[in-house]
User: Which sequence fits this backbone?
């Protein structure tokens, strides 16, 4: 499925969906077309009857995403667009998109096979899991264009790498290759280029084959955990478990365990 010319959506029968950012000539920067297409893809997945269980987000043409749209920045400077107008436009596009991706109910996986910089790096961090090739490069390079951070950097980055390293990355604007990105926790796994597709498919299959209702609750609870007290976390876990106890997948999981076989979860 093509969402305009900039974003493509493919939904497989097994419950895996792939969103591809496809403006390689602009290194998949978060243009208005990319942002709108990505939002539309998320809408389609949530409204889909195909029981999507995992979403993979990737970029075409050797880049994940170059982040902020430089052409739009130039337009704002040349046309003397008021700062307030530019802030509101940022809030309507990038900020809303990032916030939605962070809280998206279906597990998301960023496949970073090339540069992910600025807001593009945050687009990857907004997903639940980050997988990378040897070509992956991360950079929080806002200073290179004379800007402070945006697109959720101050929220997402310290949660992943800690405050000190987060400050280093934004103050220096240094680019981080795949190996260091893995050591810092910016990515979960780095795969060799020649086996990237196979390893990513294996990883996604593990999520797709799991109990969808239970995994969605588990994913949400872990994402919310740092903002809660222990008491609140325990209460929320108990509430979610009460919901999952009523699912057919829970019964199937217990039965399969007792019968020493792999469970077949239907999402019910």
Assistant:
């Amino acid at each position: 499925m093509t969402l305009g010319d900039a974003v493509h959506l493919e939904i497989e029968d097994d419950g895996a969906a792939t969103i591809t950012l496809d403006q390689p000539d602009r290194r998949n920067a978060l243009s208005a077309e990319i942002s709108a297409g990505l939002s539309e893809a998320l809408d389609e997945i949530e409204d889909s009857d195909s029981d999507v269980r995992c979403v993979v987000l990737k970029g075409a043409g050797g880049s994940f995403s170059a982040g902020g749209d430089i052409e739009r920045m130039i337009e704002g400077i040349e046309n003397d667009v008021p700062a307030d107008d530019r802030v509101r436009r940022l809030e309507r596009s990038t900020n809303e998109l990032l916030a939605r991706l962070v809280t998206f109910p279906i597990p998301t996986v960023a496949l970073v096979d090339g540069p992910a910089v600025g807001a593009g790096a945050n687009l990857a961090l907004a997903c639940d899991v980050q997988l990378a090739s040897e070509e992956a490069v991360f950079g929080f390079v806002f200073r290179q264009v004379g800007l402070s951070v945006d697109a959720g950097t101050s929220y997402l980055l310290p949660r992943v790498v800690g405050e000190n390293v987060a400050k280093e990355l934004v103050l220096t604007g240094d680019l981080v290759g795949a190996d260091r990105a893995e050591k810092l926790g910016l990515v979960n796994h780095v795969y060799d280029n020649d086996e990237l597709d196979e390893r990513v498919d294996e990883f996604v299959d593990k999520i797709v084959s799991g109990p969808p209702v239970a995994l969605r609750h588990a994913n949400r609870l872990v994402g919310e955990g740092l903002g809660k007290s222990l008491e609140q976390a325990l209460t929320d876990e108990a509430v979610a478990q009460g919901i999952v106890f009523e699912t057919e997948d829970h019964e199937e999981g217990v039965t399969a365990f007792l019968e020493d076989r792999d469970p077949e979860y239907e999402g019910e």
Summary: The chain has two domains: 2-208, 212-258. The chain has eleven helices and ten strands. The beta strands are 2-3, 7-11, 16-21, 54-59, 108-112, 115-117, 129-133, 137-139, 175-177, 189-191. The two ends are 27 Å apart (CA to CA).
